[in-house]
């Protein structure tokens, strides 16, 4: 029994018992022995009030549960829900794609999202602190998350800058991308050739907005318009996060809810447009044979993975500002399903508008080809006998043209190709897969030019994109600043401003005339593989190193109820296996796909795939390596005691929790002393720990709280009590077994 125990003091002296060392270090109130549950009278059945450790340790907290939910929704629901998910639906079987997506959301998305929420809420630290605490040798997980957040934040805010530029360009009628510009050549006026070969919206995007070069090797200098737009984007982000959740939480009330207002408005307006039903029917028509293709499941898993923001550190950072008893399981399920239904809502909107656009383009095709047929009739290339009597060229319908096209193709079978007639099939227009910037800045903008009051809808659409991007950027910046603020005593405002200035300067790479190609490079290589590795290590560190049983017991103690036994098997076996398959498929995909980018060739007025030059390939490889480099470095450094385990940077909450655990152990020894029990034996009159039943139902586990001892063999408690006391070299502990 410790020499400074309250019981020893009571035996040696009749004076009032003072606080123990653990009480002082834990900053707790003195324990009244008479009211303690370990008192013999209390054990006999007297009701005793529970002593709680105060949670107010100076860490910021959310003002309300709604504010926290909106923050998580704003972070997870981003631009990918609008321009990536609809494309994947179209590409991978329409409505059939929803089946693998939903299955993988249940077995991968929700369990891993729940895991990140739980560890952040329990340990109340950012990504670096959380994984240092769970397993110091895997502390590089948090550092890799921070690196990926930095890479993604650099180019993601560029996209917000593009949206800001289009937003301000929308305040004019007609919209500047409605028609091709006219070039005056002396007394004659001609349409800009590059625009004439492509389209007005395509020309405005590539030439007037990006002013892009033809290859990534041609820098072309800074694009002043995009540089100013990027500066405005970083100013907005900086103002939103400068005071942490105190400022970003208030911003989320608008930035998280406004996109839903716009989406519902677009859906109602879209359903009133001609052809919208065709687009929605095309999207939801299931192609069941697609479900048997492995590629569909891989892309569904990747979309689930990135849609919830797993591995970025933003989920953990937001959750760390919660109360310890918050029901994070409910939060995980709620946010996941909100994300899923938002993706479906966005898909409905996109295909309703694209269905309208497809009808417009199909009618235009019919009109142009109808004029060709009239010319052939007037020049006697085609006989008037081929024209059915009910066909009226003044109001040529798509069905009449389809019939006319079939007749001419049958009669002129040998020379039909020379006529240059197009089939003008609506299905072909709907099958034109568009994603990313091509959807937002070309296809959607072109459709809005045909809307009545088109500037209003354009302003609403790009303002929605700005808010979607802002919500994700707030989560990304929180994932960067929270671990740094946890580890170092830095002024929050100063850190935020410095991060934004550095990010803006680094972001100048993306506002060169060739910057669009670097955005593609970073999007393809800086996050995909590193984040998958980060999340699989998160899963393994909790499920296999710390122990799924211990983690389940921690959740029961924290939430007040035991999560479903299904999570035990999902964390332990299903999720790691799925992630290993996903990372293997990603590596194979990267190996067999030629690394390159789609370059805009001005002379041809179209995109052409080009391979990366050697220096660009080296950059792609460097992005992956730099993002994952902290993982082996931290592991090796801590394996050989070359790096501190971070225990000297524990928060007040840690110390309170640890001191409370030590105090509880000390009080148990005091009870054994009072009741005359042998050391190490719990007296019969004192209830022991509540056993936790494993999934088999026949094995109980004496629960342990989250502690790095499981991985590292050293104790943060010792470091918190006496940082200067030398410790013995760490010894690894055998991972928890299933039995």
Automatic annotation (TrEMBL):
The chain crosses the membrane at residues 68-86, 98-119, 146-168, 228-246, 253-272, 300-321, 333-354, 456-482, 494-513, 525-546, 567-592, 612-637. Keywords: Glycoprotein, Membrane, Metal-binding, Sodium, Symport, Transmembrane, Transmembrane helix, Transport. Signal peptide: none annotated. InterPro entries: Na/ntran_symport, Neutral_aa_SLC6, SNS_sf. One of its GO terms (biological process) is sodium ion transmembrane transport. SUPFAM superfamilies: SNF-like (SSF161070). It is a multi-pass membrane protein. Residues 718-739 are annotated as: Disordered. Na(+) binds at residues 74, 77, 81, 339, 468, 472. It comes from the Eukaryota. GO terms for molecular function: metal ion binding; symporter activity. It is found in: Membrane. NCBIfam families: Na_transp. Belongs to the sodium:neurotransmitter symporter (SNF) (TC 2.A.22) family. This is Transporter.
């Amino acid at each position: 029994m410790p020499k400074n125990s309250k019981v020893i003091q009571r035996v040696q002296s009749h004076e009032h018992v003072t606080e123990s060392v653990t009480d002082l270090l834990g900053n707790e109130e003195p324990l009244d022995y008479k009211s303690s549950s370990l008192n013999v009278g209390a054990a006999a059945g007297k009701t005793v009030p529970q002593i709680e450790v105060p949670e107010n340790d100076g860490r910021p907290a959310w003002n309300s549960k709604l504010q926290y939910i909106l923050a998580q929704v704003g972070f997870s629901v981003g631009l990918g829900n609008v321009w990536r998910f609809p494309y994947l639906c179209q590409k991978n079987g329409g409505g059939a794609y929803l089946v693998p997506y939903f299955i993988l959301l249940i077995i991968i998305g929700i369990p891993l999202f729940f895991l990140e929420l739980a560890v952040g809420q329990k340990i109340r630290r950012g990504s670096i602190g959380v994984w240092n605490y769970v397993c110091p040798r895997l502390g590089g997980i948090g550092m890799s998350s921070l690196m990926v957040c930095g890479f993604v934040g650099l180019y993601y805010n560029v996209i917000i800058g593009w949206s800001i530029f289009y937003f301000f360009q929308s305040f004019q009628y007609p919209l500047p991308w409605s028609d091709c510009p006219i070039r005056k050549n002396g007394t004659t006026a001609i349409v800009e050739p590059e625009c004439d070969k492509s389209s007005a919206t395509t020309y405005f995007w590539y030439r007037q907005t990006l002013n892009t070069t033809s290859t990534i090797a041609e820098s072309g200098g800074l694009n002043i318009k995009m540089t100013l737009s990027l500066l405005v984007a970083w100013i907005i982000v900086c103002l939103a996060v400068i005071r942490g959740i105190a400022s970003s939480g208030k911003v989320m009330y608008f930035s998280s809810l406004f996109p839903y207002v716009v989406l519902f408005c677009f859906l109602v307006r879209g359903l009133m447009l001609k052809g919208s039903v065709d687009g929605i029917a095309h999207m939801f028509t299931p192609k069941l044979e697609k479900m048997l293709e492995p590629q569909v499941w891989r892309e569904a898993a990747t979309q689930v993975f990135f849609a919830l923001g797993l591995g970025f550190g933003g989920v953990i950072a937001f959750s760390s500002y919660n109360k310890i008893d918050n029901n994070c399981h409910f939060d995980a399920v709620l946010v996941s399903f909100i994300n899923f239904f938002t993706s479906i809502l966005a898909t409905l909107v996109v295909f309703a508008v694209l269905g309208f656009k497809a009808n417009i383009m199909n009618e235009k095709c019919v009109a142009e080809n109808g004029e060709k047929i009239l010319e052939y009739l007037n020049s006697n290339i085609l006989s008037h006998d081929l024209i059915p009597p009910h066909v009226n060229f003044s109001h040529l319908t798509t069905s009449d043209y389809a019939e006319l096209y079939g007749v001419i193709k049958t009669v002129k079978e040998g020379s039909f190709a020379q006529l240059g007639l197009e089939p003008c099939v609506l299905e072909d227009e709907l099958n034109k897969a568009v994603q990313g910037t091509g959807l937002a800045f070309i296809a959607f903008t072109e459709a809005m030019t045909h809307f009545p009051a088109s500037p209003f809808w354009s302003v609403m659409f790009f303002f929605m994109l700005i808010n979607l991007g802002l919500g994700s950027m707030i989560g990304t910046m929180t994932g960067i600043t929270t671990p740094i603020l946890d580890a170092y005593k830095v002024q929050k405002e100063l850190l935020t401003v410095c991060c934004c200035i550095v990010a803006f300067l680094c972001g100048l790479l993306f506002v060169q005339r060739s910057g669009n190609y670097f955005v593609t490079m970073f999007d393809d290589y800086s996050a995909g593989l590193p984040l998958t590795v980060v999340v699989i290590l998160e899963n393994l560190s909790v499920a296999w190193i710390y122990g799924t049983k211990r983690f389940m017991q921690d959740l029961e103690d924290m939430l007040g109820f035991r999560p479903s036994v299904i999570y035990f098997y999902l964390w332990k076996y299903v999720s790691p296996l799925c992630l290993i398959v996903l990372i293997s498929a990603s590596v194979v995909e990267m190996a067999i796909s030629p690394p390159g980018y789609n370059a805009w060739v001005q002379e041809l007025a179209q995109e052409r795939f080009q391979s990366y030059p050697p220096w660009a390939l080296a950059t792609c490889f460097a992005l992956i390596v730099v993002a994952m480099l902290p993982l082996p470095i931290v592991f090796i450094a801590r394996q050989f005691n070359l790096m501190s385990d971070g225990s000297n940077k524990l928060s007040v909450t840690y110390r309170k929790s640890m001191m409370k655990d030590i105090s509880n152990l000390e009080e148990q020894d005091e009870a054994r002393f009072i009741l005359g029990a042998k050391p190490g034996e719990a007296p019969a009159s004192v209830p022991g720990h509540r056993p936790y039943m494993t999934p088999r139902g026949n094995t109980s586990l004496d629960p342990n709280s989250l502690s790095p001892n499981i991985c590292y063999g050293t104790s943060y408690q010792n470091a918190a009590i006496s940082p200067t006391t030398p410790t013995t070299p760490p010894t690894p502990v055998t991972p928890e077994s299933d039995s």
